[in-house]
């Protein structure tokens, strides 16, 4: 089996409504046979949001491979290239095995006691001198639920800082925002089985063939089976996903909102609206209709540079298919009208009542494997359990649960989003920044600025990672973390499936689980509740899970039916049932909702009084917005639109995938994709090295011709050298605050 050449593996076609056949994929280390394996340990893959159920192979106390779990609801045994090669091979390779501390400018090895004392000393001093606002926590979408919940309690009730967020801000902040704006709360309405049941599938800014390869294998198996679904792809590049499409719309980056307004207009004009559903279950139809009215096919075609006929065909497929599944991801989320455009996808489904029914629904996709948990457990600044920071009752519930004064829990303003946390660090109002499981020196926009901030003398930087990275090199203290397979915990995938991942092996050297590190910090800081008892009352992962279960009780993401015992064996288990909103009742009730919402164009928030006055009472919001041009447009000096994203062979900043030889050899260095016509105009050939640069900075990379539409160039962002984020800029969507990685004006010259 060569999952590099054959990314999706052999086809196992299935017809509509049939069970997706099982196909078990397995990869073992060279020279290890199945009979050599001592134990198979239950887990799920943490290299994307699909969350494929898998077992970890252990021999002589080491991880020696993986195998898909045949009975898992998500993958029915399959695994993709990253899971098969990238999930386990990095385990033994040049890991961080002791804490490091900066002495005389150099990072030197030290013990846990010295490292933690240094952090606690600085933390105490800052709390005394400045107060809680001196602390910022920047975490991940790759830890476990138990770790996020513990971090959330420490930050909100121990320190009392609103400055907590995850790299989820770069990733799925828009998913959460679009779900809150339309439905009142986070939570994916659809599920994986909808792929088996749908008549059409729409992918909006989502290169699923490269980024959720196992999910795409399920789509391919439908495409090759009887009663195949129609596929519509919206992406400025001819990706492998787009190649499988019946209609491929390739809008200019930054024009999604105009395209969606055009689709909505067509659906309304042709009478493909379920009037009864709309009047019973939604609010805002008239305003939506009026807003989209000017978006005629001709006008949309001019803004987006797509053909009007293709637009109308896509609208017809949406309007006339019985069951439609839509997925939305970074092509929409990392944009200036990110939440607005993503909400229009929700609107399309609401107009036809295609939600909460078999084969129909929306997946406002996650990207990272555990991003859903960052959001649920409140490590991204939101309050745990999808609670509303602006609702005093919700704050009181948490204060009672944690036995603290409600005033300790920051809720005087919205939680600070990541881009603002970095700004505060730049201005030195935040003086302790604790970074866990993320590599911002490669993944944040405008890297020259990020490096400058991390080097700032006034900023004490703690970095918690499994490897030395571009970011650890700029830290004051580095904490060696155990990773997947070396610790126990749970996480939730893009369709609310919760998996338990058991510890298979011991962490290397002195590395510790992130949970143990957070618990140690809480213990050393002596955080107490109102009765003087320890604030954090659990000592291990299962204890943290049980505490979280209580916290989630009665909320949309209620975990009380789950336990480690139930998650053991068998498959993953969903929260919220197979699909959400089967009865057309949404969590928009003012006492229940996670957010009172925003104006999609400006980001201005709705006041609690205004929200209540609209009496949503379980109806979903059809929120409308005009298209506005992106803040950065091509000019004479910077004539191309530069966009960025992923390759199938690498995960993010490659800390794991570059240590897997198959993956590293498949894509060892960065490149730029340019259209055939643009390459001709520039006089560059395949493999020529060019400089791609914006006002902020540039990279020198070889050219790959094809894939991009004219006027657009694409850089993969995986590489810490010649990094795409030298080029990108510090701008974000007004509602979700997700940075605009997908739109920069650039110029190109041959080197
Ligand atoms: N192989 C691999 N898989 C991954 C990851 C990985 O690093 N590698 N990371 C995981 C994570 S965390 C995430 S968030 C997901 C991301 O998964 P995706 O969102 O599928 O990945 P991207 O490549 O970032 O962006 C998707 C597409 O958006 C298109 N695009 C760019 N600008 C626009 C625009 O203005 N409009 C539209 N409609 N499309 C546009 C790009 O051409 C690109 O093909 O992948 C997950 N899976
Ligand atoms: N230009 C551009 N930039 C982008 C994007 C884009 O499309 N274009 N996409 C954005 C998106 S969607 C994302 S999700 C981000 C991803 O950006 P990052 O989060 O910076 O990327 P990763 O390489 O996944 O970093 C995760 C780090 O956690 C470490 N790690 C893994 N497991 C553990 C663990 O259990 N504990 C600890 N403590 N550490 C662990 C890894 O070694 C790694 O260093 O990048 C964003 N940046
Ligand atoms: S599709 Fe995602 S979760 Fe599944 S094996 Fe591949 S990387 Fe892992
Ligand atoms: Mo992501």
Can you give the helix content as a percent range?
A: 25-40%
What's the mean pLDDT score? 98
Total separate domains: 4
What is the rounded distance between the termini?
40 Å
Number of strands: 27
- Please tell me how large the radius of gyration is: 24 Å
How much of the sequence lies in strands comes to: 15-25%
Largest sheet: 7 strands, mixed
Content-based structural category: alpha/beta
Oligomer: single chain
Low-confidence stretches: none
User: Number of helical runs?
Assistant: 27
Please name the CATH architecture of the largest domain.
3-Layer(aba) Sandwich
Order of strands across the biggest sheet? 6-5-17-16-15-7-8
Structural shape: globular
Q: Ligands bound here?
A: ligand MGD, iron/sulfur cluster, molybdenum atom
The CATH topology of the largest domain, please?
A: Rossmann fold
Q: How would you portray this structure in words?
A:
- By secondary structure, this protein is an alpha/beta fold.
- It has four domains: 1-89, N-terminal domain of TfIIb, CATH 2.20.25.90; 100-171 and 370-574, Rossmann fold; 174-365, Dimethylsulfoxide Reductase, domain 2 (3-Layer(aba) Sandwich); 640-750, Barwin-like endoglucanases (Beta Barrel), CATH 2.40.40.
- It is 31% helix and 17% strand.
- It contains 27 helices and 27 strands.
- Strands 6-5-17-16-15-7-8 form a seven-stranded mixed β-sheet, with helices on both faces.
- Helix 2 crosses helix 22 (514-525), helix 3 (145-159) packs across helix 23 (541-552) and helix 10 (256-269) packs parallel to helix 16 (338-351).
- The relative contact order is 0.16.
- The structure holds ligand MGD (2 copies), iron/sulfur cluster and molybdenum atom.
- Residues 48, 82, 171, 204-207, 210-211, 234-237, 239, 251, 253-254, 256, 329-332, 335, 367-368, 643, 645-646, 648, 650-652, 714, 742 line the site of one ligand MGD.
